[in-house]
Amino acid sequence: MSRRILIAGASMGGLRAAERLRASGFMGEIVAVGDEIHMPYNRPPLSKEALAAEVTHEAVAFRLRPAVADVTWRLGVPIASADLDAGAVRLADGAELAYDGLVVATGMRPRRLPTPGPARGRHVVRTLDDARALRGDLGPGARVLVVGAGFIGCEVAATARLLGADVTVVAPEAVPMRRPLGDDLGAALQRRHERHGVRFLLGRTVAAFLGADRVAGAELSDGTRLDADVVVEAVGSASNTEWLDGNGLDLSDGVLCDNALRVEGRAGVVAVGDVARFPNPRYDGVARRVEHWSIPTDTAKRAAVTLLADLALGAADPAPFAPLPTFWSDQYDLRIQSFGAPALGADDIRVLDGDLDGEVVVGYHDGGALVGVVLIGLPSAVARYRAELMRAPAAA
């Protein structure tokens, strides 16, 4: 009898899972269910180069490999609930789908501010439709307020400035991108943004949005009032896991998995991408979610093997799953690249090459061991530092 594997989520993680299932020899039915109407596409450009131009699906769509040409894509209708014991899900339109194996790939959604005031003119950036809506409000002379000074906020700020907008960034942190990069590198990047005309109001939050039927400004926690036509809320993400409620899972931060990406020891259920919380023995035994571009591909490779082994359709991989997280950020003419886990070395940060106001390599250490690097420029150094991180022994 043919087996059916259901992939809950039709973004990058879902696509990579389908590809790896086929590459691992699964010949049965694959059904991918997604809440968006669009076929899988690449999200990082939505706050960068795609936002700077006309936002189209063609510009960011992933090429579908022949191996997944027979995958059934059910798009535009999210999964409403799941019964893992029965091996079935219910869609928001009432349809029910049974499965033999389940891949959880529902990812994240942007958090919204519970701040009083009008809703029109307030944006987030996660989906293609989000980026299209924001792009329609950007342009020369637009007064843009970015709430949040992480990577998404700073990328949008840079893109908006390049489009001729007046940009102010408001955030409670002392420096932008502080948590992933540390104080010194975050402050250096702030100086670069300021040279491009971005204004930072840090150490404060938004108390209220001003205006009648559309945002016209904001009042900050210190009483400052700002004029703004466009607001971008870049204040973090929440996991799309509500559809798994009632199954006895730990959903406190994504979906808790073991090192093989199996969801809490449940045979036939795995998770991939940034919704998966798993221990990485490259660092320690703590289960964490990782919102990096490389993670959907890395987790899909292992999750596919684990799932097929659970279905008695392949052999398990006994080697520890120890991916090296990787991401990049483009801001103006800067390419910021990160390898490893800089946040785990936040107490011991050293400049390894170059200087903070030019091209630089910054190393992040835990117990004296290099656990992450961030590079600005210096492309010739990427391979060397990545190799050094790959050679580092796994934590005991």
Task: Name its key features.
oxidoreductase, 396 residues, Reductase_C, alpha/beta, five-stranded parallel β-sheet, 9 helices
Task: Explain what the structure shows.
21% of the residues lie in helices and 29% in strands. α1 packs across α8. The protein is globular, with a radius of gyration of 22 Å. The chain is built from 9 helices and 26 strands. The strands form 7 sheets. Strands 3-2-1-7-19 form a 5-stranded parallel sheet, with helices on one face. A 5-stranded parallel sheet has the order 9-16-10-11-12, with helices on one face. The model has no long low-confidence stretch (mean pLDDT 95). It is of the alpha/beta class. α1 (12-23) links the parallel β1 and β2 (29-34). The chain has helices at 12-23, 49-52, 57-60, 128-137, 151-162, 178-181, 183-195, 295-310, 382-391, and strands at residues 4-8, 29-34, 72-75, 79-83, 88-91, 96-98, 101-104, 108-110, 122-123, 143-147, 166-171, 199-202, 206-210, 217-220, 225-227, 230-233, 237-239, 255-256, 269-271, 276-279, 287-288, 326-331, 334-340, 349-354, 360-366, 369-376.
